[in-house]
From TrEMBL:
Residues 29-48 bind DNA. Keywords: DNA-binding, Transcription, Transcription regulation. Residues 8-66 form the HTH tetR-type domain. The keyword DNA-binding applies. Pfam families: TetR_C_1 (PF02909). It comes from Streptomyces incarnatus. InterPro entries: Homeodomain-like_sf, HTH_TetR, Repressor_TetR_C, Tet_transcr_reg_TetR-rel_C_sf. The keyword Transcription applies. It comes from the Bacteria. This is Transcriptional regulator.
Length: 204
């Protein structure tokens, strides 16, 4: 019996299958990937560096949807805002991957390159070096939290007659549809105003 024209296993297929499992269940295992691809578990390990290696492939795959051109925009605040929006959209497409990726150190070269570009952008804008990573991490907290919020039910508060909450009921009725998007805009506006104030104080 001849070899199949298309190999059963390669890094792309492994990554695609792992992401499908994460989208479905929030996690993956190497044996699960092997079963879906009709291969032996040991064969998967010939293509990746264990579970940690697959996690980094997932990170690269999800982050590949972030538009790299956003960090080339001018001025710097337009670049940061565009990057945040693209970042949120990329992770909103795979919200169940967020907890998995947040608990693993970033090692993927392409992702590290994007962080390097973000840091360089802020340095060039005049931000103090010591404040750059706290700023980026704060933005990520906003972006990833909002991406998770997009996956939540539109109605997150179920009011009952047992506990009177008339003000909460009125506030929920007033917000209308698009709760997560409106909350993200509030957070991003506050973040950008803070970042601009920091940049002005630093003399940038």
């Amino acid at each position: 019996m001849g070899r199949p024209r298309t190999p059963l296993l390669d890094r792309e297929r492994i990554t695609t299958t792992a992401l499908q499992l994460v989208d479905e269940t929030g996690d993956f295992s190497v044996p699960q990937i092997a079963r879906r691809l009709g291969a032996q578990t040991g064969s998967v390990y010939h293509h990746v560096e264990g579970r940690d290696g697959i996690v980094e492939l997932l990170r690269e795959r999800v982050c590949a949807a972030i538009d790299p051109g956003t960090l080339e925009l001018t001025p710097w605040d337009a670049a940061v805002e565009a990057w945040a929006r693209s970042y949120r959209a990329a992770f909103a497409a795979h919200p169940r991957a967020i907890p998995l990726l947040m608990t693993s150190p970033v090692r993927a070269p392409r992702v590290l390159e994007q962080y390097e570009r973000a840091v360089s952008l802020l340095l060039d804008a005049g931000f103090e070096r010591a404040g750059i990573m706290p700023l980026i991490i704060a933005l990520e907290n906003l972006v990833l939290g909002s991406a998770l919020d997009l996956a939540a039910p539109e109605t997150m508060w179920e009011l009952t007659d047992r506990i009177p909450t008339p003000h909460l009921a009125d506030a929920l009725a007033a917000v209308g549809e698009g709760r997560a998007d409106r909350a993200f805009e509030v957070g991003l506006t506050a973040f950008m105003n803070h970042a601009r104030a920091l940049q002005a104080r630093s003399g940038g």
